[in-house]
C-alpha cells in the first residue's frame, strides 16, 4: 500500500510549500504584472509550462522552496524583459513571434494555408462548429493566431448588416 500512502510522505511539508509558493507566485505576478501568464506568443506558453514544472518540483520536494522560488522569479523576470524588448526592438518580435495566418477569407477555405499550418480541413470545420457557424457564408475570416488558437470571425446571419472591420485583420498573413 506504499503506492497510495507512505508514512515517509512529507505531507505537512507539501502543504506548507504549497502555501508558500502560492504566496510567492502571487507576489511575483503582482510585481511583474498581469502579462505574467498571458498566452500571446509561443514563448509565453513555454514559460507558463516551465513555471508549472518548477512548481511541481517544489511541491514534490525535488527542489527546495527557495531554489524553486528563484527559478520562478527568474522566468517571470525574463517574460517581463522579453515583453519589453518586443515593443522596443521590432526585429526581436519578428524573431520570436509567429504572425497570425488567415485560414479562411470569407467563405473561401485557403487550402495552401491549411497545408502550411498543418491543420486538417476537419479540424477547421470543428472550430467553425464551436463558433456556432451554420453556413460558410456567415464566415468573415478564420485566423490561426500566433498562440496556436484559431479565431472564427463570423456574422450571426447571412445578411449584409454585419461586416468585418478590416482593421481586425491587421498583421494577419494572407499567404504563408
Automatic annotation (TrEMBL):
Membrane topology classification: Multi-pass membrane protein
Keyword Membrane: yes
Family per similarity comment: Belongs to the UPF0702 family.
Protein name as catalogued: Membrane protein containing
Region of interest called Disordered, as start-end residue ranges on this chain: 154-176
Cellular component GO terms held in the UniProt record: plasma membrane
PANTHER family referenced in this protein's UniProt entry, alphabetically: UPF0702 TRANSMEMBRANE PROTEIN YCAP
Transmembrane among keywords: yes
Domain of life: Bacteria
Keywords: Cell membrane, Membrane, Transmembrane, Transmembrane helix
Principal location listed in the UniProt entry: membrane
Basic and acidic residues bias spans: 160-176
Residue intervals passing through the bilayer: 12-33, 40-59, 65-85
InterPro entries: DUF421 (IPR007353), UPF0702_alpha/beta_dom_sf (IPR023090)
Domain YetF C-terminal stretches: 91-159
Protein location: Cell membrane
